[in-house]
Specification:
The complex is a heterodimer of chains A (about 200) and B (about 70). Chain A has one domain. Chain A is about 15% helix and about 40% strand. Chain A is elongated. The chains are: A mainly beta (about 200), B alpha+beta (about 70). At the A-B interface, helix 1, strand 1, strand 2, strand 11 and strand 12 of A face helix 1 and strand 1 of B.
Chain lengths: ~200, ~70
């Protein structure tokens, strides 16, 4: 028996239709169930690390070093020594908005000399739990009291907790401004959170 | 309808069904239940600003001449 081209194409088409219908049918209807079957619904909630400065700007305003003084010390705890800056009681506020504990480091985007200038300036940070967030920052705490903050990553909180009322910290700053420094100055604070 | 037209329709139907079957197989009907984790290091930034203005200059000449007649 010899098949012509038309017959061959017809048979192939029919075969393709049958095979396609089989797969389509299997996709849409699955297979018939004749007994009780159990199924499992599985969901995985992944962890997500995220930090946010809810207060991202701290402006000490304008002032100058009192005449006859080598320099002035100002901080955001409300201290102004030998200078005319207005008392500052603000701070940066950092929130762990993720759903996992983090190790937190702080650093700056420039050196203190580039920031303040003049003779022997200093720039220090102090980290504490925000009011009502007791226990937010635990473990290694380089900045539990005012300590130099610079371009080197230093651990501010060995563990910065997440969630609830214990995921927020205050970061205060203290500047020593020499009397030969002058101008409008800014510096960036970089907070990096690493999952524990 | 001649045989050629019937064959053409048969082929078209076969092709459509084959494509449908392939698409259904590729687009798996399982509902994804996980999402990619975003545990990579996260960073955020703040800014500190201060304006240092020149201090008042003591006028020694004025002080010295103030007491003279």
């Amino acid at each position: 028996m010899k098949l012509d081209n038309t017959e061959i194409i017809s048979y192939i088409s029919i075969a393709v239709i049958i095979i396609s219908l089989f797969f389509i049918g299997a996709e849409i209807t699955g297979y018939a169930v004749t007994e009780n079957e159990t199924a499992i619904v599985n969901v995985t909630i992944s962890t997500s690390a995220a930090l946010e400065f809810t207060t991202a700007l701290l402006d000490f305003g304008s002032g100058y070093v009192n005449a006859g003084q080598a320099g002035a010390t100002i901080n955001s705890d409300g201290t102004v020594t030998d200078g005319t800056w207005a008392v500052q009681n603000g701070e940066l506020v950092l929130d762990n908005i993720g759903n996992i504990n983090l190790s937190l480091t702080l650093s700056t985007n420039k050196t203190v000399a580039d920031f303040i200038d003049g003779l022997n300036p200093t720039f220090k940070a102090k980290v504490s739990d925000t009011a009502g967030n007791t226990g937010a920052c635990t473990g290694t705490q380089t900045f539990s009291s005012y300590a130099e903050v610079n371009q080197t990553l230093q651990t501010a909180c060995g563990k910065l907790a997440f969630g609830g009322d214990f995921d927020e910290i205050d970061i205060n700053f203290e500047l020593y401004i020499p009397n030969d420094a002058e101008g409008a100055k800014t510096i960036g604070i970089i907070a990096i959170g690493t999952t524990l | 309808m001649d045989a050629k037209k019937k064959l053409t329709i048969l082929v078209i139907v076969a092709v459509i069904l084959a494509i449908t079957a392939i698409v259904l197989n590729i687009a798996d009907s399982e509902v994804p239940t996980t999402r990619s984790s975003s545990d990579a290091d996260q960073s955020s930034g703040g800014v500190i600003g201060v304006d240092i203005i020149p201090g008042e200059v003591e006028d020694k000449l004025l002080e010295e001449t103030a007491g003279q007649p």
